[in-house]
Amino acid sequence: MASWDTALFRAAAVSLLLLLLGSRSALSQDAKSSDNQWIITLGGSVEYGPSYEGSKHLSFSGMPSFDFRRLGEAPEYGAPDDNIDYGLFDIGGVDIGPVVGLRGGRSAFDDSELQGLHSVQWNLDAGVFAQYWPIEDRLRVRAETRQALWGGDGLLADLSLDWFQPVGDRWLLSAGPRMSLANGAYMRNNFAVSAEDAAKSGRVEAFDANGGLKSIGFTVAATYTVSPAWSVQIYDKYNRLVGDAADSPITSRLGSADQNVIGITLNRSFQIGF
């Protein structure tokens, strides 16, 4: 079976192929708005960071991205760690809607020291996001709450604050702090070690992980608009595992609480009609 990183590389490759195939539907600056016309943005990212959550080993991986909006709607600023969302409601300036994301996995394939410990399967999650702009197009507050769709992998809640700063006509800089919380099911799946696993491993002791604050961090990004259809983004996402996520022997003995990911994304936008 292919590893999680391999699967992501394939997904990113498919996204990049779709970017190129969409060249015949490239955006035109004088395109007219229509109710049945949409702007689709496909992206493919390459990241270099921990092989799994809590790992000290670094590896390359790929990640696809997707966004859409009606033709005529202004594109909204976003951060590289935003998951795929769509705003359905605007309540007092708070944008609310569904959000979906991907979760990475973990196995002995990623690190031989994980032999004997239970694997963590990759997963999809879905939930609700809410965001508010205290300063329009500059300062954004965002929250995402997402539940795993299978396997009892638990609930995550991510909170972020971002400042967006255009520089000239083509550059957009963004930066802001992060905080992530997880429930007991997520923490046990990713950071707990059962007595049976500890005996099989021989490297770590049994550990019970409880829900609560999982990590704090900071994300920075720079986006360059090549044309109305193409853009490139480089970014750095740093998170420090805390609480039981940091105290777990998976992190403290075999890995590291410092989790840093650098990445680059190529985005392609094109117009389609239904």
TrEMBL record:
Task: Point out the signal peptide segment.
Answer: 1-28
Task: List the keywords (alphabetical).
Answer: Cell outer membrane, Membrane, Signal
Q: Which InterPro entries match?
A: MipA
Q: In which broad location class does this protein mainly occur, judging by the first location in its UniProt entry?
A: membrane
Task: Spell out the subcellular localization from the entry.
Answer: Cell outer membrane
Family, per the entry?
Answer: Belongs to the MipA/OmpV family.
Q: What is this protein called?
A: MipA/OmpV family protein
Q: Which organism is it from?
A: Rhizobium hidalgonense
